[in-house]
């Protein structure tokens, strides 16, 4: 049955999971996905490693599937056929590949952790064993890819990229990126930065979007940049608890931020039906209608083993905290009230995808022809049960979910 909520416009949004099919199930820890439609193919990117952590590291894998294979075989048990077109490897740990396309080129941005190369450089992280770089590869045909090229500064993680029309109407679109910085030897504060490019390779710094200024909203990261309307940018950014929502108007120098109470890790924003939606890793105990699991309480006894009487208000079952493996899920939300006069939107839950353990970090594409949302994400739900202590080194699989999203 579809999960139905009332949208901010008075319309009703219905989200229905149509199919979920595997993309990568080879027993490795496959994670951190990107998804894009370019020309006649869908491309998916992910990291393939031995575990979640930086050591011993992982490679970037890019696969593609013809759009007709997805569109005309929606009910195949084994799903569409994916073909590997690139495997990117460097001496470090490569992770979080994001795909971006224009008419002529397909690009993949990803980060690489390298062992610390020095202790007195301006960009080195404090008290860390690794530094990181953002790199880019590109292709004009989908199968032959360039070698990785560094973009922007060390220890600035270019997380998301969006194109906006040039203010000079006769020129090509301008690209803006949101990067997060985790501090250097002079400053341990996390910060979000807006950078700009016309080539997607050479970037210049435009604005500091957000400093980590207080305990509650410290360590902003994983900023997802999007353009809700002309001459306006918005951003959803991760916090450990809750998330940040920011907006700015051209020239995007001054940002206004709100702290939202719903946890969104690695948000992937898309727009459909004139509305804004996000897929992200969320906490199950923040979903509507959440009922905490219960466990038997230990009965009170006397020294000789007899139970101590208690009144009826003393329950025999008590709520228990979710284990880390059970805590997070991959969820779809509507970002309501995103308009010219609203700086603090609300989030309304639409759907939870099959997910468990280490999961989420989705790539999303809205297919207007199919009227479906395509989500590439990773999860361990088909590997249950797994011991808690092996969660981050256990196999994780990449899936493609097809979700119907209709406004009635």
Write up what this structure looks like:
By secondary structure, this protein is mainly β. The chain has a single domain, classed as 6 Propeller (Neuraminidase), CATH 2.120.10. The chain has two helices and 27 strands. It has helices at residues 67-71, 324-327; strands at residues 3-6, 12-24, 29-38, 41-49, 58-66, 83-88, 93-101, 106-115, 130-139, 149-151, 156-164, 174-181, 191-197, 204-211, 221-229, 232-238, 243-249, 256-260, 265-272, 275-283, 294-296, 317-319, 328-336, 346-353, 360-367, 372-379, 397-407. The strands form seven sheets. Strands 1-2-27-26-25 form a five-stranded antiparallel beta sheet, with no helix packed on it. Strand 4 and strand 5 form a beta hairpin. The protein is globular.
Class derived from helix and strand content: mainly beta
How many beta strands in the DSSP annotation?
27
Query: What's the story with the biggest beta sheet?
Result: 5 strands, antiparallel
**What characteristic shape results from the CA principal axes?**
globular
Element-level helix/strand string = EEEEEHEEEEEEEEEEEEEEEEEHEEEEE
Relative helix content: under 10%
Instruction: Provide the CATH topology.
Output: Neuraminidase
- Tally of discrete structural domains: 1
Q: Architecture in CATH?
A: 6 Propeller
The proportion of strand residues reads over 45%
Distance between the termini: 15 Å
Strand order of the largest sheet: 1-2-27-26-25
pLDDT under 50 segments (min length 5)?
A: 1-8, 309-320
Q: Report the mean per-residue pLDDT as an integer.
A: 85
Cα radius of gyration in angstroms: 22 Å
Counted by DSSP, the helix tally is: 2
- Under CATH at level 1, the class stands as Mainly Beta
Oligomer: single chain
């Amino acid at each position: 049955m579809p999960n139905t909520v009332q949208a901010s416009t008075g319309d009703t949004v219905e989200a229905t999971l149509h199919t979920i099919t595997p993309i990568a199930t080879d027993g490795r820890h496959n994670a951190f996905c990107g998804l894009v439609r370019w020309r006649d193919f869908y491309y998916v990117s992910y990291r393939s490693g031995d575990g979640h952590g930086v050591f011993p590291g992982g490679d970037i894998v890019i696969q593609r599937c013809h759009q007709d294979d997805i569109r005309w075989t929606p009910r195949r048990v084994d799903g569409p056929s994916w073909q590997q077109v690139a495997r990117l490897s460097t001496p470090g740990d490569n992770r979080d590949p994001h795909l971006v396309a224009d008419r002529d080129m397909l690009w993949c941005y990803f980060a690489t952790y390298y062992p610390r190369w020095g202790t007195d450089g301006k960009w080195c992280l404090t008290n860390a064993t690794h530094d990181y770089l953002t790199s880019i590869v590109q292709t004009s045909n989908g199968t032959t890819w360039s070698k990785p090229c560094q973009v922007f500064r060390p220890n600035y993680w270019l997380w998301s990229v969006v194109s906006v029309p040039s203010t000079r109407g006769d020129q090509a679109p301008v690209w803006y990126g949101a990067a997060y910085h985790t501090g250097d030897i002079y400053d341990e504060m996390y910060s979000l930065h807006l950078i700009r490019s016309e080539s997607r390779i050479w970037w210049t710094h435009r604005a500091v979007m957000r400093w980590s200024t207080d305990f509650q909203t410290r360590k902003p990261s994983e900023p997802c940049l999007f353009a809700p309307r002309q001459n306006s940018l918005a951003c959803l950014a991760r916090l450990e608890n809750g998330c940040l929502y920011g907006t700015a108007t051209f020239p995007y120098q001054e940002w206004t931020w709100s702290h939202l109470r719903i946890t969104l890790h690695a948000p992937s924003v898309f727009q459909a039906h004139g509305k804004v939606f996000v897929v992200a890793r969320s906490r199950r105990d923040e979903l509507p209608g959440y009922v905490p699991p219960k466990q038997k309480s230990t009965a009170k006894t006397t020294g000789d083993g007899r139970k101590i009487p208690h009144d009826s208000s003393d329950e025999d079952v008590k709520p228990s905290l979710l284990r880390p493996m059970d805590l997070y899920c991959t969820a779809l939300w509507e970002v309501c009230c995103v308009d010219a006069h609203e700086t603090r939107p609300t989030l309304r839950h639409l759907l939870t995808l099959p997910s468990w353990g280490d999961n989420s970090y989705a790539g999303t594409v809205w297919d207007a022809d199919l009227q479906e949302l395509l989500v590439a994400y990773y999860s361990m739900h088909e590997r249950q049960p797994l011991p808690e202590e092996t969660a981050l080194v256990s196999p994780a699989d990449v899936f493609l979910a097809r979700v119907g999203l209709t406004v009635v």
